[in-house]
Amino acid sequence: MERTALVLVDTGLTAVGSRGNILTPEPGLALIDGSELSLGSDAERSARIKPRRVHSRFWQMLADRPLKRPHPHQLRTADLVHAQLARIWDATGRDAHEVVLVLPGLFTGEQLALLLGIAESIGVPVRGMVDAAVAAAADRETRRHC
């Protein structure tokens, strides 16, 4: 049974499998140009050309409120999170039967509920969530005793 940890940090998202396989970190970037949406590394490549079309805080600002100008009003940060999580899940997680989300402690209860709903809609089998600081401290303590 494959387990995967999806680690969200300020700069993006990384997937780590129980066999040690690690996905290259995907920047938390979305480039919205008209009806076209580029995410992660694809958005990063075009960010300098169209900086006003880039949204870089959609993970931290996860909500169901409409985006502000210059982004299309019908989009929400939740839509961008959904799109990037689906992309990463398609690339890395299809073999995982269990997923643990490692998240910053700043997420509100409403944001956690929204994230769990997004993950469920994609088919991500979330079995737990842990604060990133707690996970880092536990890892450090484990390494110290080895």
Morphology:
globular
Category from helices, strands and their pairing: alpha/beta
Query: What's the helix count?
Result: 4
* Count of individual beta strands: 8
Low-pLDDT runs of 5+ residues are none
Report strand order across the widest sheet: 3-2-1-7-8
Rounded to an integer, what's the Rg over CA atoms?
Answer: 16 Å
Q: Describe the biggest sheet?
A: 5 strands, mixed
Write down the secondary-structure element order: EEEEEHEHEHEH
Oligomer: single chain
Strand content: 25-35%
| Average of per-residue pLDDT values | 86
User: Portion of residues in helices?
Assistant: 25-40%
- For the termini, the CA-CA separation is 25 Å
Structure report:
The protein is an alpha/beta fold and 146 residues long. It is built from 4 helices and 8 strands, in the order βββββαβαβαβα. It has helices at residues 40-46, 77-93, 109-122, 132-144; strands at residues 2-9, 12-17, 26-27, 30-33, 36-39, 54-55, 96-103, 126-131. A 5-stranded mixed sheet has the order 3-2-1-7-8. Strand 4 (30-33) and strand 5 form a beta hairpin.
